[in-house]
Amino acid sequence: MENGAIRYQLLPNQLVKIERGEWPFMGGRLILQETVLNFGRPTPKRLTFQLVGFDAKQFVDSLGFTGLEITGIFDGVLPMIFDDEGGRIVGGRLESRPPGGRFHYTGTRPKAGLMVGVAFDLLSDMRYRHMVVRLQGDLAGEFATRFTIEQITLGQEGGFVAGLVRNAFRNVPLRVNLNIAGPFRALIQMAKGFKDPTTAIAPVMPFPLDAPGVAVQTRILGKEEEQQRTSPPQDEVDVSTNPPPESE
């Protein structure tokens, strides 16, 4: 985050009053609400961040994911606690603005039978009118995210069977509950690695990547170029229509 501003007061007894902080963030604003921090003794530091106009598409694009599109504008709050054990989010909640958005995945289709394929076709392209994201957990450890997606319209992906299922549920209100749990920092580092792999290869290199005389460049291969690099080499045979020279 950059180009932000924060107002604070220095109070007696090593107290700091944060009046307000604000930064541009993913198409919207990240606002630090008023709080008082006690630096005189080891007490938990409580910070509440408010998200206004958070653009889901900008966030997903910044992570460098290919084949995944999520759109929608969200508002919400992220209450955080920092103490000797680190930082964690407690009761974070984001809610989409009308008219909602879209979840579209164009990645690899699983090869696990007909019904799994039909479910993939139906759920890989959804339009929603309302979504709530609940966040809870340790920023350096286990982290839980719960999605509640309502008023869903299924996309037109898939074949005949997917079309039958889609028509059967056309007038039925659909609601999807999705729970994701995992190490938060590891997931973010993995996501960054898709966009800039230097963060993944730097620890195993015998020299620093920012050493003098070392220039590191990264680029994303196109699908055709990637297929050319991964395709097995083919033997080259010289074919000529001219008859061989007569031996003397």
How would you portray this structure in words?
The chain is of the alpha+beta class and about 250 residues long. The chain has one domain (about 5-100, about 130-150, about 175-230). It is built from 6 helices and 12 strands. Strands 1, 2, 3, 4, 5, 6, 7, 8, 9, 10, 11 and 12 form a 12-stranded antiparallel sheet that branches. The longest helix has 12 residues, at about 185-195. It starts with a strand and ends in an 18-residue tail after the last helix.
What's the structural blueprint in terms of helices and strands?
Layout: E1 5-11, E2 15-25, E3 28-32, E4 35-38, E5 45-55, H1 56-62, E6 68-70, E7 73-83, E8 86-96, E9 101-105, H2 114-123, E10 125-138, E11 142-154, H3 160-168, E12 175-183, H4 184-195, H5 198-201, H6 223-230
Antiparallel strand pairs: 1-2, 2-3, 2-4, 3-5, 5-7, 6-9, 7-8, 8-10, 9-10, 10-11, 11-12
Structural features:
alpha+beta, 248 residues, extended, 12 strands, 6 helices, twelve-stranded antiparallel sheet
Mean pLDDT across all amino acids: 76
Beta-strand content:
35-45%
| Sequence stretches where pLDDT stays below 50 over 5 or more residues | 235-241
Q: Nearest-angstrom radius of gyration?
A: 26 Å
Query: N-to-C terminal Cα separation, in Å?
Result: 82 Å
SSE pattern, N- to C-terminal: EEEEEHEEEEHEEHEHHH
Helix content: 10-25%
- Say how many strands there are: 12
Number of contiguous helices: 6
Gross morphology is: extended
Largest sheet: 12 strands, antiparallel
Count of structural domains: 1
Assign the structural class, choosing from mainly alpha, mainly beta, alpha/beta, alpha+beta, or little secondary structure: alpha+beta
